[in-house]
Amino acid sequence: MPLNLPSVAVVIPCHNYGAFLQEAIESLHRQTHPPTEIVVVDDNSTDNTREVAERMGVTYMRSELGNVFEARKLGYQATQSDLLCFLDADDYVADDYLEQAARLMQQDWRLGIVYSDMERFGAEQGRTQFPVYFDPIRFQRDNYLHAGSVVRRSALRITQAFETPRPSHLTHEDWLLWSRVLDAGWHAQKSNAIYYYRRHPNGSMITGRKNKSWYFRLGHNRSPVTILIPLAGRQQYFDELFAFLERQTWPREQCRLVLGDTSQDAAYTQRVKDWIARSDYQDVRHMQFAVGAKGIADADRKQVYLDVQDAVLRCWSRLTKSIDTNWTFCLEDDVIPPDDIIERLFKDLQGGVDAVVGPYMSRMLDHWTVYRDGKTVLPGQERSGIEKIDGAGFGCMLIRSHLLKHHVWTHGPRQGDWYDPWFAKATGLQMLCDWDIPVRHLPAENAALSIVH
Q1: Looking at the domain 8-212, which fold is it?
Q2: From the CB of residue 5, how many other CB atoms can be counted at a distance below 10 Å?
Q3: How many whole angstroms from its chain centre is CA 36?
Q4: Chain centre to alpha carbon of residue 207
C-alpha cells in the first residue's frame, strides 16, 4: 500500500443493480491504494443488493430517496476520508484508479477533481477519451467529468456542493455537483487510469430517464444569473424598466443584479439608489462611472457615431469585469421583455449554444437588431420559432459569461463597424434567436436618431 497518500472513501449508490454490484466492489478490493471506506447506499432496491453488500464485507445503508444525487450525499455524510469516489453500482475501476487520483491530489492542493478516460463495455465497446488538460469553457458546454471522478472532500464541504435544493430527476446530477466545485475556483486534472462504464441494451438507470430539455438536464433551473444593465440616465424609461425588474420571475436568490450607472445625473442616480433600498434583490451592485459626454446615448448619432461606439464599448468593458456567474442576462435600459424572459431563453438552449436572444426592433432604423448572413433582418424577414443567427444586439441576451469577461471590447476591424456583429464573429459565438418572444424597444425621445450601419 502506498504510504502517505490521502485516504479515499468510495460511495456506491445502487438501485436494483445487485447483479452488477459484486464486480464493482471486487474492483475496489484490487486497488493498489485500497479505499479506507466502501459504502453501498441502497436506494429503495427490491433485488439482492443488501445480500451482495453484506457478503462482500462493505458498509450497507438503506434509503428510500429515489434520487442518485441524494444517495451520493447520504454516502458523503456517512464517510470521513480525504477523497471520495462515487462509483456507479454497474461500473468498475482499474486497479490503479484510486492511487493515481490520490497521487495527483497530494501533489496539488488546488486540485478539487481528478477525472479519467472511460472504457465502455457491455452492449457497446470503445473508449471515450477526454481532454488531457481541463478546459472550463468546454466543460460548461459539455460535461466530460464522469460521475466516478475522484473529488476532494474539503472541496465539497467548503463549496457546500451538496447543499442545494433536490435536483430534478431529469438533471445531470454529476454535472451539477462538479459545477459547484469548479465554479468556486478548484482545479480539475486528468489521470492516466481508466473508469469502466457499462452500457446497457436499453440505456442505464439514469440515461433512460433523461429527456430532450437541456433546461432540466443541465440544471439551468438552478443557475445563478447576472442581470447586467447599462443605465444611460433615461428618466422617461425609468419606471418601466424598474417595474420589469420587480416583476421578472427568475428567483431572487439566483440573481446578481449589476447596474452600470453612466448617467452623470444626480437626480437619476438617487432614484436608482432609492429603488435598490426598497427592492427584494439580495445581491445588487450599483456602479457609477462616466463613459462619454453626458447624454451621449440619446445624441444625434450621425454627428457622434464613433463617440457613441466608444462609450458603449467602455461601458461593457467595465461592467463585464464584475460578473461572477456562468450565465449573464444582458438588458438595455430601454428594452422591456416578458417577465419570464430568463426562463424562456434558458429553455431555448441546446448543446453547444453560447447565447440566445429575444429580438427587438432598432429604434434608429426600421430593422431588427438581429444579423443573418452578415446583414440585419428587415421587417417581413422574421421567422417563427428558434433560428441560428450570426449576431444580435445586446439588449435582450442570455449568454455564457466567460465570453463577456474575456472579450477585448472593440468595434470591427474597419473604423465605424458596429461592435455587436463583430463580437459574434470574433468569439465564434453560437447564437440562437427566438422569434416567438415579444420584446419591446421603447421609442426614442429624440426623433433625429438615425444612422446607417
Answers
A1: Spore Coat Polysaccharide Biosynthesis Protein SpsA; Chain A (3.90.550)
A2: 17
A3: 34
A4: 21
C-alpha–C-alpha distance, residues 306 and 308, integer Å:
5
Torsion (CA) 401, 405, 411, 414 in degrees, nearest 10: -100
- Please report which confidence band the pLDDT of residue 157 belongs to, taking 50, 70 and 90 as the band edges: very high
pLDDT in tens, 167-203: 555 457 788 889 889 888 899 999 999 999 999 886 5
* Sheet with 255-261: strands ordered across: 284-288, 255-261, 225-231, 327-331, 396-400, 355-357, 431-434, 386-389
Indicate the domain borders of the chain.
Answer: 8-212, 223-441
Question: Where is 98: in which H helix or E strand?
Answer: helix 97-107
Residue 19 belongs to what H/E stretch?
helix 18-29
Give Cβ neighbours of residue 57 (< 8 Å, ≥ 6 apart).
Answer: none
Kindly provide the b/e burial profile for residues 211-227, where b requires at least 16 CB atoms within 10 angstroms of the residue's own CB: eebbbbbbbbbbbbbbb
Residue with cell 464486480: 23
| Single-letter residue type at 163 | E
CB 425 within 8 A of CB 391: yes
Fold of 223-441: Spore Coat Polysaccharide Biosynthesis Protein SpsA; Chain A (3.90.550)
pLDDT, tens digit (0-9, with 9 covering 90-100), for 82-124: 999 999 999 999 999 999 999 999 999 999 999 999 999 999 9
Q: What's the whole-model pTM score?
A: 0.70
CB 81, CB 153: distance < 8 Å:
yes
Q: Shortest CA distance to 199 belongs to which of 122, 278, 109?
A: 122
Say how far apart CA 389 and CA 430 lie, in whole Å: 8
Report the C-alpha gap between 241 and 344 in whole angstroms.
19
Grid cell, residue 101, equals: 487520483
What does the block give as the cell for 371? 444579423
Q: Number of C-alpha atoms within 13 angstroms, CB side, residue 406?
A: 8
Strands 225-231 and 431-434, by their bridges, are: unpaired
Residue 282 in grid coordinates: 439580495
- Give the chain's length: 453
